[in-house]
UniProtKB/TrEMBL annotation:
Pfam families: DUF58 (PF01882). It comes from Psychromonas marina. It comes from the Bacteria. Residues 61-245 form the DUF58 domain. InterPro entries: DUF58, vWFA_dom_sf. This is DUF58 domain-containing protein.
Amino acid sequence: MSIALFDNTPYQTGVDVHLNELLSYKQQEKLQLQPTAKAAYQQLAGNYLAKIKGRGMEFAEVRHYQAGDDVRTIDWSVTARTGKAHTKLFHEEKERPVFILLDLSDSMIFGSQFVFKSVQACHLASLLSWQAKQRGDRLGGIIFNQQQVSELKPRGRSKGLMRFLHQSQQLCMKQPFKSSNNEQSLLLQLKRLSRLVQTGSQIHLISDFSQLDESCQKLLTLINRHNQINAWQVSDPLEQHLPKNALKAQLQVNSLQGSGYFRAGGAADYQDAATLRQQKIDNTFIKQGIPLYKVCASMPLMEQFHVPAR
């Protein structure tokens, strides 16, 4: 793996995640960012609509009743005490739960140019976490690698944020490539998310979606019914295209199943399989009506966003 790191990026090794890298995204928490490869109609930060009905208001103060005020907001105890009609005023409630499902499983421990996909996923999750905190939302989520999972219920202020960042760092540590009786999968985590999530939540799914199948799609339909979901696909260029000179020499391929050599004409098959795989992922989220954003592990995260001029 070749890593090119620059002084103006928070990345240190590209293989592991350090807490100070994740903390550095605090300086981006107030920016109204837009992904360069964004889904139509969806922004990273700013106003959002919740899939939940209700006034969503919290009490602010009491004032004298005025013509046109809703009689249902009359404060009868103050009215009785003063002898004059008073009405309650409310602040619009801004806080809501934000859940981040962060995939750090084996397929994410890969990178050909800059950083591992797992590292880029943690940086993205950190950015989304800081922006959730800046809005005053409660942050929770599910973080999993191949052997472990951390389930975090939503908490407000800095407590939820720091807990999420610490767990991201811990579970991003490289795991041995071996089978386990307790292997975690995207399907298992979506099941867990469906039990954990609260109606009206905002959900961010961060993964390469290599494990996305029909069972996952059914759970997405269920979760999306009463929540707002954004999907973030983290990829590496080598997953989509082989280098132009890859087949000029005999190319050896190593995997868990063994080793071999890339056959002549294999580049076209590789490209076709990659295109078909991506089309299935795209079509799944289009069918669900879920915005799908694409983030690459081959360049710094913040270079993949537009920052509107002030």
